[in-house]
Amino acid sequence: MEGIINYIGVACSALSLILDIVAVAIPNWISDSPVHYGLWKICFSDACFDISDIFSLKHLQEPDYLKATRALLIIGLIMLAAAIVVAVLKMFVMKDNSFLSSGAAGSAIAGGLLILVGAIIFAVKEIKESDLTADTLSSGFALAIVSGAIAILAGILFFIGKNN
């Protein structure tokens, strides 16, 4: 049973990692027709531009919450990758080292929490500082939330796999 739970934990971590990569990359965190934007790009109908270029044209700096969201999601992504590496090491190389299960679990849970916090910061600041509503939150935000939840589930599975 221990092996199966750890395999499921690695699969959940990998799925969460993929979802987080897509969430960071796509320009669909906010969709307010005809404009939609994400962490890096803003699109007007079919034309997309770097967010940093838009702020540079106006002689402004990018908002701190946007930088924080990017950082939290990318650090969460790195922690998920570390959880996968540590779990695979535990499963195939250092089978007797129970500390590795704790490391994989902690890394996955921490990564998931960072992703969730980053997504929540973005949503709260966007809704609070503009005329947008929660209805304008789009697929990038949803993917980040799902990614964080799955990462936490993976961490719990690693802890269960350690105790069996």
UniProtKB/TrEMBL annotation:
Protein name: Uncharacterized protein
InterPro entries: PMP-22/EMP/MP20-like (IPR050579), PMP22/EMP/MP20/Claudin (IPR004031)
Gene3D superfamilies attached to this UniProt entry: 1.20.140.150
Membrane disposition: Multi-pass membrane protein
Cellular localization per UniProt: Membrane
Transmembrane regions: 7-30, 71-93, 105-124, 136-160
Superkingdom, natural source: Eukaryota
Family annotation (Pfam families): PMP22_Claudin
Signal peptide location: none
Species, as recorded: Sinanodonta woodiana
A GO CC annotation given for this chain: membrane
Entry keyword set: Membrane, Transmembrane, Transmembrane helix
Main subcellular localisation: membrane
